[in-house]
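Hey, sorry to bother you again with one of my protein questions. There's a protein on my desk that I can't quite get my head around. No rush at all, and the record is pasted right below.
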Amino acid sequence: MNDNVVSDYYSQIENAEYTFACNTTLSDITFFINDYDIVISEKLMNFAATDNERTTCFDELQSNDDLSENIFEDSLLKSPFIVFDINNSRIGFALQT
C-alpha cells in the first residue's frame, strides 16, 4: 500500500508501526475499487505473531515502498465475494452475507 495509507492507518493504533501488541484492537479499513467499497474487518487485519509468546504481531497492511503497484494481501480476498472472469479480463466484487 501507499506509504501515506499505511501511515494514516497506523497513526490510529497506539504504539504501532508495522507491528503492535497482539491484544490490540485494530480498525477496519475500506478500499474503494471502482464502484465498490470493500471493508476489511479488523479481525482479518492481524496477520501473525512475530514471537512464540504471541505478544507482538504484524498485520496485513504493508508499505509498497512507493512502487506503482499495490499488492493486496489475502485479507482483501477474504472480505468480499469475488468473481474472476478470466475470459473477459475482469474481476467482480459483492458483499458477503
Residues 3-94 form a domain with the Cathepsin D, subunit A; domain 1 fold (CATH 2.40.70.10). The chain has a mean pLDDT of 79. The two ends are 27 Å apart (CA to CA). The chain has one domain: 3-94.
